[in-house]
Amino acid sequence: MVSPPHEAMHRIFQHDPGLFSRVSRFLGVDIPAPVKATALPTDLTETNPVERRVDTLLRLETADQGSFILAVEAQGKKHPDKPASWAYYTAYLWTKYRLPTALLVVCQDPATARWAQQPVSCGPPQLPTLTVQPLVAGPHNMPVITDPEEARADLVLASLAAITHAAEPDVDVILKALSTALRDAPEDVAKPLIEFTAQGLGKRPAKNLWRNLVAVDLSFYTSYLAEEVRAEVRKEVRAEVRQEVRAEVRQEVRAEVRQEVQAEVRDEALTQGEARRAAADVLAVLAERGLPVSDAVREVIDGCDDPETLSRWLRRAVTASTAEEVVTGA
Q: How far is CA 269 from CA 44, 200, 276, 313, 325, in A?
């Protein structure tokens, strides 16, 4: 599954194709600013069943050097298969469009950036044949923009700087400068950059700082970041409401159970009252007949709470020759 940082690292070049020209000076090359840019299909699949897609693909036209193709790849970690894929991309695009083809790889990790910029040849050492060495933008060469005025001069570059430094200690200062600069920008300019930056920070700790910094902007509440926050708040509120509903249901169930228990206790009390009266009747008959009742027999009669048993003992008490016969059935 494609992650938000991956999407932000290449989609920002779709948002502002001229960004590549401004980034190139940090990469040691001089790419003229385009006078026209066209987004091209990113599907590079041929008739074979292997699907190949580049992240972002642009056709840039310059005033002095003509047109060229720019493929932008977001790379989150080292992958041994990528150089071969990049070689395929550049060769395929060169063949298809017959235009010079540039490959830019955007990273957030210095180790991945160093790996990506190493030249890789498809042939043996003495026969390199085709060598791939992409331009790489990452925390090792992207500017650390900490001045709001500098950020205001190129908001898109400042956003890319925050994205590429997302895991670096300087990211907090970059984000503060960017948020300050965005406050003066029109909503249609600020909103996508707020979203790109939020996506690029991913789940890193700086994401929370970015939320707090841009919360003062009303457009924030309709942005990608707001939707993410809304989902988290919804989860929290759902848990709170669940607890409230459980408490309400518990109270309702408690009231119902209380009524049931009251009825049960009332029935038990009535049964016990009947049993005590029936036991007293048995003892009264025995006393009337002048039959002696031992403590043991009296305890058995007083301790019985079964109305049917006491009713049977009452009938026996009328004819029994001893009190013991009443409770033993002899």
A: 85, 72, 10, 21, 29
